[in-house]
Amino acid sequence: MWVIKRSGEREQFDSNKAKAAVMRAGVPRGEADDVVEGLLPQLYDGITTEEIYRRIHQTLEKGEAARYGLKKAILRLGPEGWHFETFIARLLTAEGYSVRVRQILDGECVSHEVDATAEKEYERLMVECKFHNSLGIKCAIQCALMAQARFLDLRERNGITRPCLVTNTRFTSDVVRYANCTGMDLLSWRWPEDAGLELLVEKHRLYPTTVLDLGRHDLAMLLDNDLILVKELLERRRDVATILSRASAEKALRLAEDALH
């Protein structure tokens, strides 16, 4: 059976991929088998991955459904890239780095606006974040070339040990080859294969606030007040109550508790 990806590409339906996606939402293996088994009779040749996503989402409980929607939730951190940069900074902090975002650093030739620097022990990373507003867009080689050029100009004066390129979508094969050749770190959806963006989020349970089923205005208010993570809503309950209406605040906190249950 053929499915149509967001990029328009066709591929054979793989039940193992569907099950893995459900399990990443925190569903036990046995229950994930049942979810996918229940999905199979609903499939048809030419179904889109978007429709498969929607049908699986309907079968999951509230907290599991929120986590299953992680890829789209990260997309909702846009349209600009600022909240995504902050989100990545939170993840790197959880990995033990000391992180600073949105700095102006002087290089050998010119000054550069750097999305983030991340320091740990004897390394200092220059982090370049490339946020895309569509899941079908891949991070292309131009992004890697720009990050490498910036790194070369900054490294001596700022003690940068290597560049790290991050995106909310995926990298082209050229970017992967170039990064392997130059020593550049990459982080994206499902890359590296054993430590991709979605696995890093699950590892630390640092879900973005946008996984919650809240209105666009309420989400924007929370993000603009630096409430980037679901867990931060629970840690800053008073702020949530101040920022949102009473009904919206109660809903946000209830959903946050469900998502982290």
3D architecture notes:
By secondary structure, the protein is α/β, with parallel strands linked by helices. 50% of the residues lie in helices and 18% in strands. It has helices at residues 15-24, 29-39, 49-59, 62-68, 70-75, 82-94, 141-158, 173-182, 197-204, 216-224, 230-235, 237-243, 246-259; strands at residues 2-4, 10-12, 47-48, 98-106, 111-120, 123-130, 138-139, 162-167, 170-171, 185-187. Helix 4 packs across helix 13.
Put the structure in a nutshell.
By secondary structure, this protein is of the alpha/beta class. The chain has helices spanning 15-24, 29-39, 49-59, 62-68, 70-75, 82-94, 141-158, 173-182, 197-204, 216-224, 230-235, 237-243, 246-259, and strands spanning 2-4, 10-12, 47-48, 98-106, 111-120, 123-130, 138-139, 162-167, 170-171, 185-187.
